[in-house]
């Protein structure tokens, strides 16, 4: 998941439905999650809890709202104790869900997922981060989590600026570069960006995807084959990035900016195009008041950054696993999935024609396009622990004028070092 999508703050703990330590008689469900109550997912999980109470009238629900950091930092210790909840929201990936699965701290949900048909409600690419192998690496054959929503990188357009400068919205890479050139000729820097955070490295990966196959993505992300960092994919990406910098499509001064600065460039109407995650979508619906905007699939590649979202997991030491399964089933129901979509997020189990919010339909249609084509290519920092910082540094060096070869070497070094010690 991208950094901006997990920057959740919440009270340490609150309870609904009573208090206590839970029981082993199927009469108590202990649940944790870290979503803000006013966000699409927070609203959806609150509705799911209410639905669970209605359908399980004799069951006490003890809900504790955690921060993302609390769960991330303490999960192994807590889940290996008698204080483990029955179900919790947890981050996807080899270093999180995969690690806990490998340690034996999470319940294998494969038979439950298949019996309840949850695997039929999402694409194979969206479920990769829910499935792990014996080494805790994603894409395996056992389900240890159930995602309810999707996340991905797409294009945000300032429709008013496109109209003002008579620029046609792009539909492929060639028309994207045509649009960028036309805006720049009119004196407008077209692309929002931020070098001191994930956006700039996301751009670099997007450019690599323009020349990449699915096999290349699986080699890079799932270690299925060797990746040549001086090969055509990364080399073309770095050179194209350099070209766009020289032409002024990116502003070199963005090298020190954070993701929030990038979003402000778009919200303020200064940059007509922002390519980033759907995690900005909800905020834009309330923050943008002075112009019309729209979303669409990124036009420069058939694949994009993205995956299934964070997921519900059931600890091995959960006392009431059947109740936890019932709750997850409610979050996969049409009612809760529609609520996710209406409030500006991407449900995995309902289609856009079931959503009334017009702009949300654009968002869901874009995600579905990638689901159908196996076009979710995950995130560039996922393959290697600590790789995020290396990617940010390499992209900043690129923006500051480093040579193509030095940037490629900088990208390759931590990746290849990790692979050499992986097994």
TrEMBL record:
Classification via Pfam families: SBP_bac_1
SUPFAM superfamilies reported in the protein's UniProt record: Periplasmic binding protein-like II (SSF53850)
TM helices/strands, residue ranges: none
Source species, domain of life: Bacteria
Any coiled-coil regions, as ranges: none
PANTHER family associated with the record: ARABINOSE-BINDING PROTEIN-RELATED, DIACETYLCHITOBIOSE BINDING PROTEIN DASA
Name of the featured protein: Sugar ABC transporter substrate-binding protein
Species in which this protein is naturally found: Streptomyces swartbergensis
Lineage: Bacteria, Bacillati, Actinomycetota, Actinomycetes, Kitasatosporales
